[in-house]
Amino acid sequence: MRIALVGAGAFGEKHLDGLKNIDGVEIASVISRSAEQAAEVAAKYGAPHSGTDLAEVLAMPDVDAVILCTPTQMHAEQAIACMNAGKHVQVEIPLSDTWADAEAVVAKQQETGLVCMVGHTRRFNPSHQYVHNKITAGEFNVQQMDVQTYFFRRKNMNAKGQPRSWTDHLLWHHAAHTIDLFAYQSGKIVAANVLQGPKHPELGIAMDMSIQLKAETGAICTLSLSFNNNGPLGTFFRYIGDSETYIARYDDLVNGREEPIDLTGVTVSNNGIELQDREFVAAIREGREPNSSVGKVLDCYRVIGELAQSLEAQDGWS
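^ that's the sequence the OP posted. Answer follows.
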């Protein structure tokens, strides 16, 4: 299978690292805004082609699938373009930054029947898979999730400390991970509330946000997000259930007493991004809908769209 990567930033390289561990997969092309960066990354991972234009890749008959790690504002349009060209596509989170665009991507997937998957990595991290297996086995039910998503990002930089060409967003990007995961572990979300702090004078986005969610099962979720946190970075998930408490930090898991839980055998890898890419490849090969397909994660964007409308209304009150 020949896969093209579009967007060779910090997260793009994580996908390339994951793909090289999957048998029968070749990197066909690396596309980036900078021709120099694209060529450098292509050489590093053995891709025979590089460039700056997605259209080049879409015109290549030997490219089977595309992974999009581009700016949020481009995701929906590019995902649709890939499917129009007959390519399977995995688009990094978030699928879009509007509800209408999310619906448009789903409509295109249904029209083409191609695999269209969204990078909701939390569904694949071994830590969250362990909890999910407990839930599906009837051994654990979520009562509350308490989640902190914290970064220190007062300048527009990526995970490698390089300048970004676009502005990140706490609601559409970072909250999407937790909103989808909460629904995946607890059921359809039936109530959601949001408050945000002051907007950054230069970035134009809220730097702090608080979200409350309730699932049809009665489980609740409290999510705190910040770009102002000058401390431990990342997302920390506390699952409070009817039989145990779990704390997940990406691919690692401990119980409520901070005792490590052995995740050996839960998955074939301890790398959530690699597991996500393995699912993408397997779904294409097997002709099936993947976990975190655009259809399965769509309801997350319904909730985000409703929260975005709530924030717009709140801005009107101020």
